[in-house]
């Protein structure tokens, strides 16, 4: 079976989806983000869920992770992890190393915008703006059929983590 795994990493929950060739959701899962968003614990928890999906469904074509904050997708780095509090973490290589497969990484709101553009409410349009409201606030822009990322994937970031 041909499918892809998508991960939505948030400050409260980590959500998982296995998506088929036509964008149909084959399987979903969700876990609470580990306490204090500890990086190592979070990466381990994500890897365990994905290993379970792979055991049930076979090896996916790809694994992609959306993470809040400023993301260097080219190098798979979380530069600043927004509401997660992470800085300079090689999330794509750390997660990929635990799974034995490559993992791609991008800003979570950019990933959501592209998903809606490709398979969801925005699929009939060439340009959309998406705003995410969760533990944090984010946004993504598709303009003329292309994802607007700006510098380090933060070109459309409208939200910011509140400070105590």
Features:
single chain; 164 residues; alpha+beta; five-stranded mixed sheet; three-stranded antiparallel sheet; 24% helix; globular
Outline:
This protein has 164 residues and is of the alpha+beta class. The chain has helices spanning 39-57, 91-99, 108-119, and strands spanning 3-9, 13-20, 25-32, 62-67, 70-72, 77-80, 87-89, 103-107, 128-133, 137-143, 146-148. Strands 3-2-1-4-8 form a 5-stranded mixed sheet. Strands 5-6-7 form a 3-stranded antiparallel sheet. The protein has a 3-stranded antiparallel sheet with strand order 9-10-11, with helices on one face.
3D architecture notes:
It is a single chain. Helices cover 24% and strands 37% of the residues. It is of the alpha+beta class and 164 residues long. The strands form 3 sheets. Strands 3-2-1-4-8 form a 5-stranded mixed β-sheet. A 3-stranded antiparallel β-sheet has the order 5-6-7. A 3-stranded antiparallel β-sheet has the order 9-10-11, with helices on one face. Strand 6 (77-80) and strand 7 form a beta hairpin. Helix 1 packs across helix 2 (91-99). The protein is globular and about 40 Å long. The N and C termini lie far apart (47 Å).
């Amino acid at each position: 079976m041909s499918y892809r795994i998508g991960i939505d990493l948030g400050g409260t929950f980590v959500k998982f989806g296995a998506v088929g060739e036509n964008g149909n959701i084959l399987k979903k899962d969700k876990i609470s983000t580990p306490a204090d968003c500890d990086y190592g614990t979070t990466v381990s928890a994500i890897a365990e869920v994905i290993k379970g999906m792979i055991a049930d469904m076979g090896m996916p074509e790809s694994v992609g992770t959306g993470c809040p904050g400023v993301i260097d997708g080219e190098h798979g780095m979380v530069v600043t992890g927004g509401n997660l509090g992470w800085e300079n973490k090689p999330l794509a290589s750390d997660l990929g190393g635990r799974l034995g497969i490559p993992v791609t990484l991008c800003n979570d709101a950019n990933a959501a915008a592209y998903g809606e553009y490709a398979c969801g409410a925005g699929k009939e349009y060439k340009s959309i703006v998406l705003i995410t409201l969760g533990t944090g606030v984010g946004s993504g822009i598709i303009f003329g059929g292309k994802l607007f990322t700006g510098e380090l994937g933060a070109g459309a970031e409208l939200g910011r983590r509140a400070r105590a």
